[in-house]
Design a protein that fits this description.
Layout (H helix, E strand, L loop, with lengths): L1 E7 L20 H8 L4 E7 L20 E4 L2 E4 L25 E5 L22 H7 L2 E9 L1 H14 L3 E10 L6 H12 L2 E2 L1
Parallel strand pairs: 1-2, 1-6, 2-5, 6-7, 7-8
Antiparallel strand pairs: 3-4
Helix pairs in contact: 3-4
Length: 198
């Protein structure tokens, strides 16, 4: 079985001091680096938003961060401006070992659609290309780690399981935002989809 590590959005803006910091987001970096040597392939994902992205609260009059609004593709949490293309906030955490990456998937670059999952934009139809890459490499088993557990890791893991991959999420190498019960909902969604949580 060919095994890939999918490292989700370990970027400065999601780490302490960043625009959308996840508590202890940087505490997982060394453990992720150590895991890279135990797999056949490493894929890094990178949130990569143009300025003025539609998921930013600042792009909507009279809206504030963490408010939910309706987009053509469904409900969307409005976030503080984060991971703007080319900014320091969008860069990978400086301790993350990028030299081990076989591939970097950038997501969220369409100004009209947010993209939590490493596989599909939030319309659930537009692919990122990751599935095709993994299939052509003959990869069937995925271990997912990164930020944030209840959003991008959750969506990526559920999509991967729906696509037929054998998926596990290393909870010790993830951190969560936990917005209005999002963590318990994410754990339930991943378990229901057949994702192994360990």
């Amino acid at each position: 079985m060919t095994h890939a590590l999918i490292v989700i959005d370990v970027q400065n803006d999601f780490c302490p001091g960043g625009a959308l910091a996840v508590t202890d987001g940087d505490a997982i970096v060394d453990g992720i680096n150590a895991l890279m040597g135990q797999v056949d392939a490493v894929v890094l994902t990178q949130d990569w938003h143009p300025a003025g992205h539609s998921s930013f609260a600042s792009s909507h009059a009279d809206k504030v961060p963490f408010e939910v609004t309706q987009m053509p593709y469904g409900a969307q949490v409005l976030w503080p401006d984060h991971c703007v293309q080319g900014s320091n906030g969008a860069a990978f955490h400086p301790r993350l070992d990028q030299t081990r990456a076989d591939m970097i998937i950038r997501k969220g670059y369409n100004p009209a659609i947010d993209s939590y999952s490493a596989f599909f934009e939030n319309d659930q139809k537009t692919p990122t290309g990751l599935e095709g890459y993994l299939r052509t490499r003959g990869i069937t088993k995925l271990t997912m780690v990164g930020l944030a557990l209840d959003f991008c890791v959750n969506f990526s893991a559920v999509d991967a399981a729906k696509l037929g991959f054998d998926v596990e999420v290393r909870l010790d190498l993830c951190r969560a935002i936990d917005l209005d019960g999002s963590l318990s909902a994410a754990r339930e969604a991943m378990t229901t989809a057949g994702v192994t949580l360990r």
